[in-house]
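Pilot study result, target chain (482 residues):
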Amino acid sequence: MTWSTDVLVCGSGLAGHCAALAAAECGAEVVLIEKTASAGGSSALAGGGFAFAGTDLQAARGIVDGPEALRRDMSEVGGGKADPALIETYVARQLETYEWLRSNGVVFSLGISSTPGAVPRVHSTAQGAAIKALHMRVEAENRIQYVDRTAAGRLITVDGAVVGALVNVDGAPKEIHARKGVILATGGFSRSARLIETYAPGLSAAFKLGGTGNTGDGLLMAGRVGAGQADMGYITATFGVAASRFPDTEQGPDEDSVLLFPIYRGAIMVNRDGVRFADESANYKSLSASCARQPNGIAFQLFDSKVIAQSVSTSSINNYEGALKRGLILTALDLDQLGKMIGVPEGALRQTVLRYNRDLLDGGVDRDFGRRAPAYGSASPLSGIDSAPFYAFPCANAITATYCGLTVNSRMQVLDVFGEIIPGLFAAGEILGGFHGRSYLSGSALGKAAISGRVAGAAAGDRPRPGMPSRPDPDRHLGSAR
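Predicted structure:
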């Protein structure tokens, strides 16, 4: 059985939706496939923040921001290892993508940043809201055919050019021929124990979360046709993911990525001995290294009624009340009782909290780790943990995303191991390598998905069909812009 279309998009996360819509805007016929039963992937599970600079929401609050600051911060956070051409593409296209998303029904709000970098630029959406809005647009677009439960297998090539893919539809093999190109938007490989063991064996014990379909399909497909890779050595875990089966510290088969950060609202964190082990205002990526050194790799974010009062039901990372109702947060009227519930030595929790509170009363700064505010860059003062009831959130490290993968140029054309374009093959979203470098700026992952998806969709959708006169390809001989 064979299908034929102009553009085939593999993966229906944020990048895949943006790619499909952008290709359709060019007049292309599009088939958008998803291997699971529902659209969204990791994008539907993410916190919903996009990094944009110079928006109307920032201007309305008197926040001065713009392309130069965004470019600088992204380069610095990436440790100078990111591809400047990919950062430049992001910076150049981010404002128009912000407006494009709004025109497609995505609603943003601007919160207070707790990210290293001083300027609040994370434009928030409710969890899964962006995917929901874009999926409605996809279903309404007659040029796009959306098909779920359809897994891509291998790419089809003719004379070195990608012309389609072999897919599996409910157990039946099928070929989809793509006259203009194939866009891989299949996400990362956070759910693949085999690939994590291959590329980041030191993280093999971390929970493996993210979209359930993120098993590295696109990476393997592209690898078979010679695609290059970038940033594979920078995979890191994320601190703060619920150990939802606690006191069992093993990952359950149905584990989901509940990520909470009461530490950025004033909580402290302790290990299984009931003692603190780091400055809680640090970035959650760097905190993952500290957590990995603790007994069983488990930590507890400890807080009181003042913090839980800051719960936000529409924020996945701050919905403490929701996590409490699900049993992911433990609560007690006194610290000794809470200490027994989480299994730390008797009296240890109370002693740790008394020391921390005493430091704040004496000088406003804790003497153990030098913490000065709830989160790095925050102007809010620290407050002691002294208002019952008390709460503990058992959490651990998890690989929620991999943020590495295929080498591409500024048009999202996939490059081979020698830096040459693989004709007809494009990539977008988490599967991209080279964009983040050593680490990533908060909000840039979803921002990258939207921007790279639009760029890839337009580049593929604008390619001539076979038999039509060819137009010059400005990137054909450039290879990587590194």
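One observation from the pilot: The CA atoms of residues 235 and 378 lie 27 Å apart. A full batch analysis is planned for the follow-on phase.
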